[in-house]
Structure formats: structure tokens, C-alpha cells
Amino acid sequence: MGEIKSALELALERTESVASDKKGLRAHEVRQEGKRLVSKLSEDPTTDVKKALKQYSSEEVRWVKEGFFQVIITQITLPTTEADLSRLSTVETGLAAVIKDSSSMKYLFEQAHQLLKQYLENRRHLVEQLRTAFADRMRKREEELARQFGHAVKLDPAQDPEFAGALQQHMGRLQQQYEGVLEQLRGELDRLFQESL
Predict the structure, then answer these.
(1) Which of the 8 DSSP states describes residue 79?
(2) Which is nearest to 170 in space by CA: 134, 115, 136, 122?
């Protein structure tokens, strides 16, 4: 007959695996602390990340940096306004604390700033072009509605479903182009980060 284990033996086996994984639990906790450090930095861009890292042992600091990097890298996104570009400076400050090759990182962020400014400009230009393309159609529709209702009617192209569809389609292509470049940037920053560990 097969070996039947008592409930006590099974419980002891489970606690052995938990006890032996204390290091894994600590690594998880410390990575979470690194993730929370990104929130602190986002709330207060003057947060001294390097100083915060000094409170950890040499083994733990690696885990904190890993958690920190996992979250901060996700903040490199396409902006919707000029104000969003300031977030990129905060990300750069944070990454400077965990990436040793500061000259390469600085170069990458100079490129990123230029890229994201260009994205915002292209986005504005795209909306203007579409508004111009739909202007005649809107004018004719306004004239039609004015004859129908007996008074002047002003329409915004954004209210036109065709305009909204065209804008969404063109904006999607533009975002896809720039997102591809941002993905390369994130990959290069990840490489620099891995070399810094």
C-alpha cells in the first residue's frame, strides 16, 4: 500500500516551503517599495531617489530598483498636451538614479523630448488638416440647416460622425508610428538598466 501522510506531515511540508521562500517574500515586498517610490517621485519631483535607495542592503537595493524601473518605464507615453512633457523630465530624473550610463541616458531623453514635441505638433497639424478638409462640407450643411430652420446654424466638425471617424483613423496611425519609436526607447532604457544592476 502507498504511503499515507498525516495532516501534520503535510502541514510541515508546506511550512518548509514557506520558510525557505522568505527571501522570495522579502524580494517581493522590496520590489513593491520600489514601485511606491515612483508614486512618491510623481507626487514630489524633488524626491531624492538615490537617498531613498541607500536605506536598503546591497541585495535589497537590486529588488527596489527592479520594482522602481518596472513602474517608471511605463510612464514614458505619448503626451496629449504640452503639460504632459514635464512628466518626462520627472521620469528622466528617476531613471538617472538607477541607470549608471548617464550620458547615454541623457542622449536618449533629448531624443525623446524632441520626438514627443514633434508628435504633439503632428497631432495638431492633423486636426487642422482634417478640419480644413471638412470645412466645405460643414458650410454646406450649415446652409442647409439655416434654410430648414430659418436662422443661422453653426456646426463644429467634431460633431460630424465622418469627421470623428477620419480623425480616429488618422490619429490611430500617427500614434502607432510614434508608439513604435517609444517602444524602442523603452527597450534601450531597459538595456541600460540591466547593465547597471
Answers:
(1) -
(2) 122
CA 162 to CA 167: how far, in whole Å? Answer: 8
SS3 47: coil
Q: Map grid coordinates 517581493 to a residue.
A: 28
User: Under a CB-based contact definition with an 8 Å cutoff, are residues 130 and 157 in contact?
Assistant: yes
Output DSSP code: residue 159: G
Nearest to 38 by CA among 95, 99, 123, 102: 95
Cell numbers representing residue 129 in the block: 488638416
Gap between the Cα atoms of 116 and 77, Å rounded: 9
Question: Maximum Cα–Cα distance for the chain, whole Å?
Answer: 96
Cβ pair 145, 152 in contact under 8 A: no
Return the residue matching grid coordinates 495638431.
124
Q: What is the pLDDT along the chain (197 residues), one digit of tens a residue?
A: 446 666 667 666 666 655 557 888 999 999 999 999 999 999 999 999 999 999 999 999 999 999 999 999 999 999 999 989 888 999 999 999 999 999 999 999 999 999 999 999 999 999 999 999 888 888 888 888 888 888 888 888 877 888 889 999 999 999 999 999 999 999 999 999 999 99
